[in-house]
């Protein structure tokens, strides 16, 4: 009987549609231009988005769209390379961020706060350009 139940469970998992996991960052986003926040870069979603948080708890991580760099989309040519460069530049480092208005005039777009983030006094966009990160996304 246990064998049948195990086979049923295995089959159900194999036949179930796969679910894409969202970015783990779920903290409330700053909604005012000029709002400042900081924390360790805990997650990189693609070449120009990351999560900043002061603790290991993803419910405290703020999802950021880097304001001063446009990377290729993850599925585009150079998208994975761009993400890898952002990881090497920022992951595990403490970022000081300031929320800004994007081209649309909004501070929050696609569930991310648009912000200029600095590592050791230099903006992440500047660090990415210096590292040769490909640009050209939306």
Describe the structure.
Helices cover 24% and strands 28% of the residues. The protein is an alpha+beta fold and 138 residues long. The chain has one domain: OB fold (Dihydrolipoamide Acetyltransferase, E2P), CATH 2.40.50. The chain has a 5-stranded mixed barrel with strand order 1-2-3-6-4. Strand 1 (36-46) and strand 2 form a beta hairpin. The longest helix has 14 residues, at 2-15. Residues 1-20 have low confidence and may be disordered.
**Helix/strand order, N-terminal first:** HEEEHEEEEH
Q: Alpha-carbon distance between the termini?
A: 55 Å
Count of structural domains: 1
Q: What is the number of beta strands?
A: 7
Main β-sheet, spatial strand arrangement: 1-2-3-6-4
Nearest-angstrom radius of gyration?
18 Å
Average pLDDT confidence is 87
The CATH class label is: Mainly Beta
Segments where pLDDT lies below 50 for 5+ residues?
1-20
The helix-and-strand class reads alpha+beta
- How would a textbook summarize the main sheet? 5 strands, mixed, barrel
Principal-axes geometry comes out as globular
| CATH architect. name | Beta Barrel
Q: What is the fold named in CATH at topology level?
A: OB fold (Dihydrolipoamide Acetyltransferase, E2P)
- Helix coverage percent: 10-25%
Helical segment tally? 3
Strand content: 25-35%
